[in-house]
Prior knowledge:
Blueprint (H helix, E strand, L loop, with lengths): L9 E7 L2 H6 L12 E6 L3 E7 L2 H9 L9 E7 L4 H18 L3 E2 L6 E2 L6 H17 L7 H5 L2 H4 L5 E2 L1 H20 L3 E7 L5 H16 L21 H4 L5 E4 L3 H13 L8 E2 L1 H6 L4 E6 L14 H15 L8 H7 L1 E8 L12 H13 L3 E4 L8 H11 L14 E5 L2 H15 L2 E5 L16 E3 L2 E5 L15 E3 L1 H4 L4 E8 L3 E4 L4 E4 L7 H4 L11 H15 L3 E9 L2 H11 L4
Helix pairs in contact: 3-4
Amino acid sequence: MAGALNMTGFKVEHLRFSSTAVREMKTLGDKFTNWPVVYTLNNATKIYVGETLNASARMNQHQASTEKADLTSLRVVVNETFNKSACLDLESFLIRLFAGEGRYQVLNRNEGVTDRDYYDRDEYRKTFQEVFEDLRSEGLFQRTIPQIENSDLFKFSPFKALNHDQATAVEDILEGLFSDIESGSSGTIVVQGDPGTGKTIVAIYMMKLLRDIQNSDPAEDYDSDSLFSDFFLEGHRELLQGFRIGLVVPQQSLRDSIRKVFKKTPLLAPAMVLSPFDLGAIEGKYDLLIVDESHRLNQRANQPSGPQNKKFREINEKLFGSDHLSYTQLDWIREKSTHQILLVDSAQSVRPADLPEAVLNSLINNSKLDARYYRLFSQMRVRGGADYVDYVRAVLSPAPPTPTSFGDYDLRFFDDIRIMSDQITLRESETQLARLVAGYAWEWKSRNNATAFDIEIDGSEFRWNQTQKDWINTAGSINEVGSIHTVQGYDLNYAGVIVGPDLRFDPVEQRLYIHRASYFDKKGKENNPKLGITYSDGDLLRYITNVYAVLMTRGILGTYVYVCDRPLREYLRGYLSEIK
């Protein structure tokens, strides 16, 4: 055993994870038999992180586990000031970082840790950083905390510490789901939340939690202090035997990122993450489908490719016996599953092919009547808070708000596109994940001609994103401009938003309007002859302002804005420039 006292009072004790070493732990003092500690068990590919009041007894339990039989190294973090709350927090902190780096397969279950405050938490968090650095010096981590936290594996990890309203929603949803399963009932649950409230995290979290319950060992000792420990008691596991669960994600880029996370996570697999078209082609029915970004499900419309038009018709015929034009992908979800959990934000619909606003409103209202509606309020992304999200949406609405300041949130307004671009490059060197993004107000010329530039503003030239899959993390993306289809659902540290000439302002009538000829998203303005729908400028204004509201709520630390249309620039300056 080895361990050096750290300047902040913690030691990391090293032992082999063997029956002999575990037996000897009883002789090592009270810190191993009657004191709160955090520990790691690992081999070259797998790791388990835990906390306990009796390390010796807990290691004996782990020795009996077949899942941990091939683990070889034990590290115990000991601190004179540790208490249960601090240990739970450190355990959660390390699990998230191990899962986020992705070097090890994290064996922990998802029993639930909430983001709870406790006495002197800020001081303990300083110690946690040093524990991390100690473990990194020993090779358990290779990257720094900021590098890990900027990764998709971290951002979409199922090992999150849920905030209060996320945890409450998950608990209530599971109670209702298990009640429905037991009674043989079916039903639809709706979870509504603004950008940054963690809808995707809740979806992924529930997938992992349900799989953990489904595969739990009745003989294993469960921590009664864990948030969802009651769901691991007798009865719940039995209800989930043979239970088929899938996660439907309409957006390609986001879907691919989540599949990478599932590939690294025990009991989850990339094949569990489906597009609506994947779902329609799969045989059999799911017991539960969780649908992220449900507002991006499609109604019947001209799809991005000819084969998808054919598939839409074939899936309708397969599921319903006929190709009625009223069928939507939401109908597919309902037909292919007994239970549905739909995560939705109607203000993030950005194309006419998305589910109609009336359908979404009906979905939400019906779920409220059935007591199957949950609201996420806490803003987890933007440091400007929920007030900032509401403010941006109001600024882009017919009823603008009173100009407001958002404290330390770095909201800036630029008159020179080159200066804004340079500032984004500087933020990238400081924090990573700083990107230029824009409304779809320029033709995508470089798609077929790699030497062409797409966007020209006052002599400055830029290219659109050269890939639609995982663009944010692609080499060279700092030199490109991302569209709505590459960033919706993702976090940035800083977003440099270019408001193109598709959105304009009439200073006489004091209103926002769109310039249709400057909007180049073909599917974003295409009429729907199949359903006999012609989209007016007013309809497109809703989609285009939704696009810009989404873009302006990507930045965790800050949002920078440049506006092409001069009247709109002067109008927005009063809301988005520095306000005292």
